[in-house]
Design brief:
With 453 residues, the chain is an alpha+beta fold. It contains 20 helices and ten strands. The strands form two sheets. Strands 1-3-6-10-9-4-2 form a seven-stranded mixed β-sheet. The termini are far apart.
């Protein structure tokens, strides 16, 4: 069985991410994964990965032979088989996920896409097989003391006691099997490691991150194995330590959709962060853009995963639209501004009319570039287009404070340049946004006071 994970990891690797209201990091990784599940991979993705692996494993005859077999036999219906087969693909793929290595994950995009869809297709068969609408599954695993401490802290929180998985999460239907491995390992760990048994309750319900019994698809002949998709979200219900077995027991509940479960609560708790963190209606393209936006703007993430411009360049073949919007956005902030205009004009042609969030970004970048070039006549053309879309459409991408401050500045500038109608339109749109800064309405009034004179 593979009901326990003992993969070698370095100190940058974790198997879980905690979903915390108070965290200053935006959870870009879940957004990134969601966008890849919804985006068709490039047609030659398999060959690109094979060529890269042949270079990476140059001189390793055993793996070169495995690559020959992979090239000949792999298709989308073989994703689970190759994932469960011990070898180069399992090691490289899981390491990329644990390290959240964006460049490497994009290399595996076709495989990630296939594995997700295969689990999605097979999901309902799990409940048919066991003739039940709810099932317990189990996983024995080694965790660091830091990870266990985090689980204990989150177990007591009512609103935000959840974590998501950074890798595919393999479990056993039979508790004794998982417990046996957890117990065996408890006596052979170093001081920083602890043995854990996850006990997971799953219900038959719609989920965005699928799971399935993979026994009939696996490369290893084991009965009763259930594989959860990377990014699956679990609520921590309880955690206890057993001195006799030296095992931590963690009871979890699978959450079908983190957005549906917590969106309203989070909005009520803090409207500014809530709208930004949850973006249920964003398209795959908008999500991909948002990840790069986070890399460029959030201090706790910037430069630690991948530079934003490099990220957008990697998307050139996956989605030319996001490639142009992203590089145009960076250029509109830092220059050269004519480059920003060139990129966004291409993006405007590529962008479907229903991609309102991306159209907002395109028009806003064009307006900003023209503002920097002191061409307010052209800038106002795009300000007007933005008003047709509405400022609220950007709130799933652009932080509220940044949006408000920018458009207050634009409204005041329009007043100074006698563009009163546009200034008034912007002010009215700003009034429709729920914002709690104490001087918010004063600033809007100041922006519009000249129009009253």
């Amino acid at each position: 069985t593979q009901a326990i994970s003992r993969d070698s990891r370095d100190n940058r690797e974790t198997t879980t991410r905690y979903i915390s209201y108070s965290s200053k990091k935006r959870d870009w990784f879940l957004t990134f994964l969601d966008s890849l599940f919804e985006t068709d991979p490039v047609g030659n993705g398999k060959q690109i990965l094979i060529d890269w692996c042949r270079s990476y494993y140059k001189g390793n005859l055993s793996i070169q032979k495995d690559l020959d077999e992979f090239q000949l036999t792999y298709n989308s219906s073989m994703a689970v088989f190759w994932y469960t087969r011990a070898g180069f693909l399992y090691r490289l793929f899981n390491k990329a996920l644990r390290q959240q290595n964006v460049e490497r994950i994009l290399l595996f995009h076709f495989f990630l896409f296939d594995l997700h869809n295969q689990l999605k297709t097979e999901q309902d068969e799990l409940f048919n097989k066991y003739k039940s609408t709810s099932i317990w599954v189990y996983r024995g695993q080694i965790l660091s003391k830091v990870e266990i401490k985090a689980i204990r802290e989150y177990a007591g929180k009512y609103y935000f006691n959840c974590f998501s998985t950074n890798t595919y999460f393999l479990t056993a239907v039979h508790r004794k099997v998982a417990l046996m491995f957890a117990g065996e390992l408890a006596h052979s760990l170093n001081e920083d490691q602890k043995s854990v048994l996850f006990e997971i309750l799953i219900h038959k319900q719609p989920v965005k991150k699928p799971f399935a019994d993979i026994s009939h698809m696996s490369a290893i002949a084991d009965e009763g194995e259930v594989l959860f998709n990377v990014g699956s979200v679990f609520q921590v219900n309880n955690i206890e330590y057993d001195e006799e077995t030296q095992v931590w027991y963690v009871k979890l509940f699978l959450i079908g959709d983190i957005t549906d479960r917590f969106h309203d609560r989070w909005i009520k708790f803090n409207p500014t962060k809530g709208r930004y963190l949850f973006a249920p209606d964003l398209s795959a393209n908008a999500k991909l853009f948002k990840v790069g936006y986070i890399f460029h703007n959030i201090d706790s993430v910037r430069g630690k995963q991948i530079e934003a411009d490099r990220y957008y360049q990697l998307l050139a073949d996956v989605t030319p639209l996001v490639y142009h919007v992203g590089l145009g956005y960076i250029a509109s902030e830092t220059g050269p501004y004519f480059s920003a205009i060139e990129h966004q004009r291409v993006a405007e042609v590529l962008c479907p009319s229903d991609e309102k969030e991306l159209l907002f970004i395109i028009y806003d970048c064009l307006a900003l570039a023209y503002e920097k070039l002191d061409n307010w006549n052209c800038a106002n053309i795009y300000h007007a287009k933005i008003m047709e879309i509405g400022l609220r459409r950007s709130l799933s991408i652009v932080p509220l404070t940044k949006l408000v401050n920018r458009y207050l500045y634009i409204a005041r500038t329009c007043v100074r340049k006698s563009c009163y109608a546009l200034a008034w339109t912007i002010c009215k749109d700003l009034l429709n946004i729920e914002y709690h800064a104490k001087d918010y309405f004063t600033k809007i009034g100041t922006a519009g006071e000249t129009m009253e004179n």
